[in-house]
Amino acid sequence: MSEHHTHGDHGHHDSHHHDDHDHGSLKSYSIGFILSVILTAIPFWLVMNKVITDSGTMGLVLLAFAAVQVVVHMVYFLHMNAKSEGGWNMMALVFTIMVVVIAMAGSLWVMYHMNHNMMPSMMPDAMHMQSAP
User: Fold this and answer.
1) 104: left (phi over 0), alpha (psi -120 to 50) or beta
2) How far is Cα 43 from Cα 127, in angstroms, rounded to an integer?
């Protein structure tokens, strides 16, 4: 005879499958939300009040806040850590970071060289030479 699973029976094909992963609690989501708001408000305040005048330093500070916020989102909302999914989440994260760094570095390199090679009239030296008789 065929075997049928009742609603209370927990066969291995049960859709309400319980595992060992932490799916978060109201407390962890609240902590993540508060940290996200703080990590958004501080850079906004820094930019709007022009606290850091050097644009290079400001860019690095904003990137640091962005990186910390990404980690907060991954830990508190995506529940990623080194142990989840047998370590595959961490490998996927490392691969993603490598791809993003390569894409950003390549984009910045291309934009710098395009600006340098295609816009010579915008260079300060070229403007000075054009105004001379």
Assistant:
1) alpha
2) 36
Q: Tell me how far apart the alpha carbons of residues 72 and 30 are, in angstroms, rounded to a whole number.
A: 12
Three-state SS annotation for 42-100: HHHHHHHCCCCCCHHHHHHHHHHHHHHHHHHHHHHCCCCCCCHHHHHHHHHHHHHHHHH
Please say if the pLDDT value at position 130 is more than 50. yes
d(CA 77, CA 62): 21
Residue where the block lists tokens 């090679």: 117
CA distance 60 to 35: 20
For residue 125 the two structure tokens come to 């030296």
Q: Are 39 and 68 in contact (CB under 8 A)?
A: yes
> Over the stretch 39-97, which tens digit does the pLDDT of each residue have?
999 999 999 999 999 988 998 899 889 989 988 998 898 888 777 777 788 788 888 88
CB-neighbour burial class of residue 21 (10 A; exposed 0-12, middle 13-18, buried 19+): exposed
